[in-house]
């Protein structure tokens, strides 16, 4: 069954959107991230205009994050104080990101910028995930710090304005969490990502948070920022398609619940390897789109985006 998307101005197959959002939610549930770094490229590949894909994809991120955080809250694996600081930085960053998003949209450079950023991030993160999974499979773990081990100190322990985070067992400066939140918020607004695949390593390696509270705290920050971005994009650019958003949220929530159950029985290194391979495959698609000349030199009516 086809349904017309009023903001994207195109018909889509309902079942296809539900399957794609469900699959993204499934992957998100397994690895504990929002899934925007998969959802937004998937929408772009389905022909959804970049501004609509970026702005509307945030709704699916918010839905899957809310679904995940409910489970983490019951397990008491959320550091609310840390999540609040990350969210404060993220609010400021997302406001600036939306302003930049609107500027790029007016200049007609949004599609190019989004594609280049995705190419860099997906290929880099994907390569690191595949490399770590391969070395684990070969029985040779990386010499770098494993995500399963937490070094004692980082720069966050030496900067001023330190406070205690009882849930994480930390006594660190508030400046790094605010800075990390700001960067994630800005990227989320421009690229339509939740930022979890960047936020989680940053919380482990830079803030030295224990892994048992990282995912839940990350999902709290992602929920706050993704929800804010949907509102800001609706006001500033009017590129949030509510019909598409409802379909994405419906499929994403169901997929996230299933993925969380399946992921509990898999080794984290294998899950990261599969996810890394998907990211690298997506980055190759973005690279081909950037270097291969399009069939049409221009498209009438594209100026509205």
From TrEMBL:
Keywords (A to Z) from UniProt: Cell membrane, Membrane, Transmembrane, Transmembrane helix
GO cellular component, as recorded: plasma membrane
Lineage: Bacteria, Pseudomonadati, Pseudomonadota, Alphaproteobacteria, Hyphomonadales
Classification via PANTHER family: MEMBRANE TRANSPORTER PROTEIN MJ0441-RELATED, MEMBRANE TRANSPORTER PROTEIN YTNM-RELATED
InterPro entries per record: TM_pro_TauE-like (IPR002781), TSUP/Inactive_protease-like (IPR051598)
Compartments, as annotated in UniProt: Cell membrane; Membrane
Its membrane topology: Multi-pass membrane protein
Family affiliation: Belongs to the 4-toluene sulfonate uptake permease (TSUP) (TC 2.A.102) family.
Name listed for the protein in its UniProt record: Probable membrane transporter protein
Residue intervals passing through the bilayer: 12-38, 44-70, 82-100, 112-130, 174-207, 213-232, 239-258, 270-288
């Amino acid at each position: 069954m086809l349904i017309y998307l009023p903001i994207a101005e195109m018909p889509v197959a309902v079942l296809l959107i539900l399957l794609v959002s469900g699959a993204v939610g499934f992957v998100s549930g397994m690895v504990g991230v929002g899934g925007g770094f998969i959802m937004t490229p998937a929408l772009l590949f389905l022909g959804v205009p970049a501004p609509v894909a970026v702005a509307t994809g945030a709704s699916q991120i918010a839905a899957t994050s809310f679904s995940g955080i409910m489970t983490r809250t019951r397990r008491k694996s959320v550091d609310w104080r840390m999540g609040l600081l990350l969210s404060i930085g993220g609010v400021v960053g997302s406001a600036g990101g939306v302003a930049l998003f609107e500027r790029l949209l007016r200049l007609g450079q949004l599609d190019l910028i989004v594609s280049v950023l995705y190419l860099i991030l997906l290929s880099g993160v994907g390569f690191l995930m595949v490399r770590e999974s391969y070395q684990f499979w070969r029985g040779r773990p990386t010499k770098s710090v494993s995500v399963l081990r937490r070094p004692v100190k980082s720069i966050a322990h030496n900067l001023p304005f330190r406070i205690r985070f009882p849930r994480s067992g930390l006594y660190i400066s508030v400046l790094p969490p605010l800075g990390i939140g700001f960067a994630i918020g800005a990227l989320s607004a421009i690229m339509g990502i939740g930022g979890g695949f960047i936020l989680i390593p940053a919380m482990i390696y830079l803030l030295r948070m224990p892994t048992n509270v990282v995912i839940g705290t990350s999902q709290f920050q992602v929920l706050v920022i993704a929800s804010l971005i949907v509102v800001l994009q609706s006001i500033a650019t009017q590129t949030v398609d509510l019909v598409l958003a409802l379909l994405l949220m419906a499929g994403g929530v169901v997929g996230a619940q299933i993925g969380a159950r399946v992921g509990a029985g898999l080794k984290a290194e294998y899950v990261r390897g599969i996810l890394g391979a998907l990211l690298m495959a997506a980055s190759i698609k973005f690279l081909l789109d950037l270097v291969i000349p399009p069939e049409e030199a221009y498209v009438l009516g594209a100026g509205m985006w």
